[in-house]
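2024-03-11 09:14:02 INFO worker-7 job=invfold-0412 stage=load source=structure_tokens
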């Protein structure tokens, strides 16, 4: 598997962002994948990972699926469905993939699975290809 390029200051994947998740993302040729341990540092309630962190990771896994295919994009819309709570200490596996392309709009799907194989959350999203000045700005973020 190939590691997907990142921005070192990113909250989700930046290895230099000590306040962030420091998650690592890989491309298996069809989808982006990521494994993390749910940290108490990102709890919403005692021993329960904040749902916003799960949503953030789903957004990132889906956009990484596009980035792995050299599509610089920004989030236009995301829908997350939470199915089960995520407890701190859980091991989570995230997957994201492109489902459709229509001009400069890309549709994706993603999911988060715990160490027991239970789907804890699923998402769909739409992304716009970044062009012109925004595309240049995003390109500057690539390390």
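2024-03-11 09:14:09 INFO worker-7 stage=emit residues=143
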């Amino acid at each position: 598997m190939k590691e997907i390029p990142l921005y070192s200051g990113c909250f989700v994947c930046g290895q230099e962002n000590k306040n962030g998740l420091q998650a690592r993302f890989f491309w298996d040729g069809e989808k982006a994948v990521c494994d993390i341990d749910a940290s108490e540092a990102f709890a919403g309630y005692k021993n329960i990972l904040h749902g916003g962190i799960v949503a953030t990771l789903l957004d990132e896994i889906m956009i990484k699926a596009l980035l792995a295919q050299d599509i610089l994009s920004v989030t236009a819309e995301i829908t997350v469905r939470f199915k089960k709570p995520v407890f701190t200490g859980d091991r989570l596996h995230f997957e994201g993939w492109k489902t459709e392309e229509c001009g400069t709009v890309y549709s994706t799907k993603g999911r988060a699975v715990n160490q027991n194989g239970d789907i804890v959350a699923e998402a769909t999203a739409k992304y716009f290809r970044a062009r012109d000045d925004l595309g240049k700005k995003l390109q500057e973020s690539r390390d």
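2024-03-11 09:14:09 INFO worker-7 stage=report msg="The mean pLDDT is 93."
2024-03-11 09:14:10 INFO worker-7 job finished
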